[in-house]
Design brief:
mainly alpha, two-stranded antiparallel sheet, 9 helices
Length: 258
């Protein structure tokens, strides 16, 4: 196996694992921040908007997805991310089917402390998250790819932070709105105010994390260049940029030298 194939395999593993974990844990919503001083400002009815801030724990694995998406974009091109996105969607769909099947078998009461009601409550909710996430994931990822390479054409090799963060800003706005609407707001009967509060908070957290993860993106670029060699890495990036217009990227289609 060539070094570039190992890089792709590692990136794909992190991409798929974190995407699937995010689907499974997304039904848990937590409050962050201190509501006491926030609720003392203005009308107390603003509480859902000002605090405490509600976020899904499903956003915790997404920084890894951000970074791996951008690195795959950079070195394996648009087709690389698209193929992994469709693969991830297929795996998430597979998880959906398995969860549905396992709910049909009655639990052995008293053996583990997990009965049918608790199991179905956790993983039944995850099914709605998965449905919403599948739609949002596909839209968000494909939009991310388009914007990333649009900025790549404008900036060339420079301004990695701009294409990485810029693509995330828009794609995650769509992703957040869609997944919360289908995965939580609709099945749980949320009010518009509650949906808006959670959506704004989740998107703000994702955006903030994406900005904070910028050094990690540069670190990942450094690691890839260190492992592959700077000349090979730069050649792979240029190939990926051109393959985003036509032709399969190295490692995901026809083999290329290197």
């Amino acid at each position: 196996m060539k070094r570039k194939d190992i890089v792709l395999a590692v990136l794909a593993a992190f991409f798929l694992t974190n995407a699937i974990i995010a689907e499974l844990i997304g039904g848990k919503v937590i409050y962050v921040g201190s509501p006491e001083w926030l609720l003392s400002i203005g009308d107390p009815s603003w509480g859902l908007v000002l605090g405490p801030f509600a976020i899904s724990v499903g956003i915790i694995p997404w920084p890894i997805v951000f970074v791996t998406t951008d690195i795959i974009n950079e070195y394996f091109g648009r087709r690389g991310v698209r193929r992994l996105t469709f693969l991830a969607a297929g795996m998430i769909g597979y998880v959906f089917v398995l969860l549905l099947v396992t709910q049909q078998f009655p639990a052995a009461e008293g053996l583990t402390g997990i009965d049918d009601k608790s199991y179905n409550k956790v993983f039944g909710q995850s099914q709605w998250i998965i449905v919403g996430s599948l739609i949002a994931f596909l839209i968000g990822q494909l939009l991310d790819v388009f914007i990333f390479h649009l900025l790549r054409k404008r900036t060339g090799k420079a301004m990695i932070w701009l294409r990485a963060t810029g693509s995330t800003v828009i794609s995650q706005l769509i992703d957040t709105c869609v997944v919360l609407a289908i995965g939580l707001a609709y099945p749980l009967g949320w009010s518009v105010q509650k949906y808006a509060s959670v959506a704004v908070t989740n998107y703000s957290v994702k955006l903030g994390v994406a900005i904070l993860m910028t050094p990690a993106i540069y670190l990942a670029h450094w690691a890839v260049e260190k492992y592959l060699g700077k000349e090979t890495a730069e050649a792979l990036a240029e190939e990926a940029a051109s393959d985003s217009v036509s032709g399969p990227p190295a490692g995901l289609g026809e083999p290329s030298a290197g």
